[in-house]
Amino acid sequence: MQIFVNTPLNEALRQKLRQQLPAEHTVFFKVEHTEEQQRAGFRQSQIILGNPPAAWFEEVSPDLQFWQLDSAGFDGFRHISLSGAIVCNLADYFSIPCAETIIAGIMAFYRGVDELTLLKAEKRWVGAPLRFRLNLLTGKRVVILGAGSIGQAVKKMLAGFDCDISMVARSHPSANIHSPEALLEVLPETDLVINCLPGMAKGFFTAEMIDALPATAVFANVGRGTTVDEEALIKALQEKRIAGAVLDVTETEPLPSDNPLWEMPHVVLTQHTGGGQASEDEGKVRFFVKNLTRFLEGKPVENQINLSRGY
To answer: How confident is the model at residue 311, as a pLDDT?
Structure first.
């Protein structure tokens, strides 16, 4: 079988992947070919690693058997219909780095690290006056939107800060809030909202919910930018109806240069780096080899998804 690798692996990882795959399989690396060759290689492949352009699937091989995405999200592929092919994502792979990023951003906000970093660049000492504007994460009343792997990782990390934690999900056993109506009831008493929702929850966190937050509240987002009413969020920040925001994701990415979020001192932007780590691609290769081996041996694969259902 031919394996089409869309993920732009470096030469060392390409060689490593070749060595770990059965010799009877041909590996076609997108980065080693012209655009015309890439499309032809994709059409001829029975196995895919990575996230090719969605439009390419109009000409996907009818013999496609296994597709391993190199992302957790797959909103852009939900319209694709594949007959008989097994599709998997990286559902749990990014959980810990995403959780660490959003917690780091929140800590930077509360402890003034973002402001202190700017002062360092200016070589300007402020010191004492800053101390009395700093805040604590410890003991905060936190609502986590989403009880999936990222939400669970965030909850685990927050446990060390003695936070009062609630989770929102329709039916997950870890959640204690199961509807938008129930969420609205607790928001006025919430210090921190951490959004971990996937793209399929588009528009979940509404303007009404933002308006329900107290002026001291912080909104953090490591899910998807489309799951919150960003216009309402920006307005609330401009009018100082909430204390601030920590955003790994935004509705449009890259964030346009004229977006007001860039210039807000009470907003931390981490530029959708949440899932990143130095060995990210190496881990993707490792997971692909393990999951493909399970598939070829007829064993249950990990993180199988249904594109049309969104999970």
So the answer is: 78
Distances in whole angstroms, Cα of residue 244 to Cα of each of 9, 85, 139, 185, 248: 38, 44, 18, 21, 14
Q: Which positions are annotated as active-site residues? A: 224, 253, 272
The kind and range of the H/E element at 195 are: strand 192-195
Task: State the amino acid at position 208 in one-letter form.
Answer: E
Do residues 101 and 248 share a domain?
Answer: yes
DSSP state of 298: T
224, exposed or middle or buried, with CB in 10 Å at 0-12, 13-18, 19+?
buried
Cα distance between residue 243 and residue 154, in whole Å: 21
* Whether 54 and 104 share a structural domain: no
Is position 16 within any domain?
Answer: yes
**Residue 66 structure tokens:** 């296994």
pLDDT level of residue 308 (50, 70, 90 thresholds): confident
Q: Is the pLDDT of residue 226 over 90?
A: yes
44 with 158, same domain: the answer is no
Which whole-number Å values give the CA distances from 282 to 49, 70, 296, in the listed order? Answer: 13, 11, 21
Q: Which two tokens stand for residue 86?
A: 């097994």
- pTM (global) more than 0.90: yes
Per residue in 114-145, is it b (16+ CB within 10 Å) or e — as a string? bbeeeeeeeeeeeeeeeeeeebebeebbbbbb
Which stretch of 16-20, 25-29, 51-55, 90-94 has the lowest confidence by average pLDDT?
90-94
Let me know: does 194 contact 144? Beta carbons within 8 Å.
yes
pLDDT over 90 (residue 309): no
- Examine the domain organization and report whether 38 and 149 are in the same domain: no
Residue 287 domain boundaries: 2-91+277-296
Residues in contact with 98: Cβ distance below 8 Å, sequence separation at least 6, in sequence order: 150, 153, 196, 222, 248, 274, 275
244: CATH: 3.40.50.720
